[in-house]
Amino acid sequence: MVAKKWAVLLDLDQTLVLTDAIEPLRRRRAWFKVYNSFDQTAVPPGTARFLSKVGELAKLGVVTTSQRTYAERLLAYHRLQLPVLVAFHDVTQRKPHPEPILKAAARLELDPAQCIHVGDQISDIDAALRAGASAIALSWDGALDKGSVRGKGAAFCSGWDEVLENITALMRGRRTPA
């Protein structure tokens, strides 16, 4: 088996799992209600196929500002198994600081330059770029728009097929469209 020379790090909320329906509960820290409301969350269409395809090309991980217990339970609820999880309490500095990306890269035994971070917030892009990783902005709901990403040095995508296309381009040494 050939060692994978790349990692794809995914943000959790509103990227890997659509969680906007439970965000008010999370803000109130009503964790019992949050955990009992996971049925109001969903994985975006094509997520399993995307993870399968990208998993053939790269190591996978999740980098989130959410607490670990929540992240682990949400991933388990949706049967998403990614080998690395860097969560809120795993770092002292959170996105947009590069520490979470750097920690995930270290856990995957890769240089940050071999990592591609996919997220739905400007803080995701900033954290990736500050860590020396590549960044892909993904917006399922239009909360992040192409204009806000322009000039940041990140690709802007609205679905998994576009993300996979940009990941493949980056791995081949081609610059992604900003």
Structure report:
The chain is an alpha/beta fold and 178 residues long. The chain has one domain (7-18, 44-171): HAD superfamily/HAD-like (Rossmann fold), CATH 3.40.50. It has eight helices and six strands; from the N terminus they run E-H-H-H-E-H-E-H-E-H-E-H-E-H. It has a six-stranded parallel beta sheet with strand order 3-2-1-4-5-6, sandwiched between helices. Helix 3 runs parallel beside helix 8 (160-171). The radius of gyration is 15 Å and the shape is globular.
Distance between the termini: 34 Å
Query: What is the number of strand segments?
Result: 6
SS element count, helices: 8
Structural class: alpha/beta
CATH domain fold name = Rossmann fold
Give the uncertain stretches in residue-range form: none
Using the CA coordinates, give the radius of gyration.
Answer: 15 Å
Q: What does the largest sheet look like? A: 6 strands, parallel
Helix-strand layout with pairing:
Blueprint: E1 7-10, H1 23-27, H2 31-35, H3 47-57, E2 59-63, H4 68-77, E3 84-86, H5 99-107, E4 115-119, H6 122-131, E5 134-138, H7 146-149, E6 155-157, H8 160-171
A few lines on this structure:
The protein is an alpha/beta fold and 178 residues long. The protein has eight helices and six strands.
Relevant terms:
globular; Rossmann fold; 178 residues
